[in-house]
Write a structure and sequence with these properties.
Blueprint (H helix, E strand, L loop, with lengths): L15 H23 L15 H28 L2 H30 L14 H22 L3 H28 L21 H40 L5
Helix pairs in contact: 1-6, 2-3, 2-5, 2-6, 3-4, 3-6, 4-5
Length: 246
C-alpha cells in the first residue's frame, strides 16, 4: 500500500451534472412524499393506514445497506491507494448511512407500537428483527468511536477502513439471513410472509419502488455535499499548517 508522507487533498469538483442531479432529487422526493401521504393504499389487516410507512421505513434500511457498501468500497480503496479522499468518502458514507439507519429504527419502533402492540403500552418486545437491528447499529456506531479514539490521522484512517470492512460483512447476516430464520412478527421472517408475498395493490408497489429510488437520490445528494464540505475543511486545515501548499 502506498504510504505517502503527505497526500495533498484534491477537492472533488461538481458541474452542471450536479445541479441537474439536485433538481431531479428534489422533484422526485417531493412526488414521493405527496404520493406517500396522499395516495391510495391497500387495505391490509392490522396495518391499515400505517402501511404508508412502507414508503419510508424500508427505503431507509436500503440506504443503510447501500451506504455501508460505499463505505466498504472506499475503505478498501484507501487501504490499496492511501489517498485521503477515499477515507473522507468512506467516513461520510458511513455517517449518512447510519443516520438513515437510526431513522429506520425509530420509524420501525413507532410502526410496531401502533400495529403489533396496539392497545398496550409496549414499545419494545425484543423481537428478533429489532434486536438484530440494534446490534447492527451498535456495530456501525463503533466505527465512529474508533475514529474518535485515535489522534494519528493515518492510523485512524487505516484502522477505520479495516473495521468498516468487518462491519460490512456482518450486515447481511444481522439484517437479512438471521431474522429470516427466526420466528418474528416482522414481515419476511419465518412463518410471516414478506410484503412481496402479500396482496398489495399494484399502485402501492410502484410508489414503493419510486420511494426507494427517491431515498437513494436523497442519500447521494446529502453524501456528496458532506464529502465536499469535509474535504474543504481538511484542505483549509492543510493550508493553515503549510501556507505554501497549492
Amino acid at each position: 500500500m502506498p504510504t505517502p508522507d503527505r497526500d495533498t487533498l484534491i477537492l472533488p469538483r461538481y458541474g452542471v451534472g450536479w445541479r441537474v442531479f439536485t433538481i431531479v432529487a428534489a422533484v422526485w422526493m417531493t412526488v414521493v412524499l405527496c404520493l406517500g401521504f396522499l395516495g391510495q393504499i391497500a387495505k391490509l389487516p392490522i396495518l391499515e393506514h400505517s402501511a404508508r410507512n412502507l414508503y419510508f421505513h424500508v427505503p431507509m434500511w436500503f440506504v443503510l445497506m447501500i451506504g455501508f457498501l460505499l463505505t466498504g468500497y472506499h475503505s478498501l480503496r484507501y487501504l490499496t491507494t492511501g489517498r485521503r479522499l477515499h477515507d473522507v468518502r468512506a467516513e461520510q458514507a458511513a455517517v449518512v448511512a447510519t443516520v438513515f439507519g437510526v431513522l429506520g429504527f425509530i420509524t420501525g419502533t413507532i410502526w410496531a407500537r401502533f400495529t403489533w402492540y396496539a392497545g398496550t403500552n409496549v414499545w419494545w418486545n425484543a423481537d428478533p428483527r429489532q434486536v438484530m437491528v440494534v446490534i447492527q447499529l451498535l456495530i456501525c456506531g463503533a466505527y465512529f468511536v474508533l475514529r474518535g479514539a485515535l489522534e494519528d490521522e493515518r492510523l485512524q484512517a487505516r484502522l477505520a477502513a479495516v473495521y468498516a470492512l468487518f462491519a460490512l460483512t456482518t450486515m447481511p447476516f444481522l439484517l437479512y439471513v438471521l431474522p429470516r430464520r427466526m420466528a418474528s412478527l416482522h414481515p419476511g421472517a419465518e412463518g410471516n410472509p414478506a410484503f412481496s408475498e402479500m396482496d398489495i395493490a399494484p399502485e402501492m408497489r410502484w410508489v414503493f419502488y419510486a420511494a426507494v429510488i427517491g431515498f437513494f437520490l436523497l442519500f447521494g445528494w446529502i453524501y456528496t455535499l458532506r464529502v465536499r464540505i469535509r474535504a474543504a475543511e481538511l484542505r483549509l486545515a492543510e493550508r493553515r499548517q503549510d501556507p505554501l501548499t497549492v
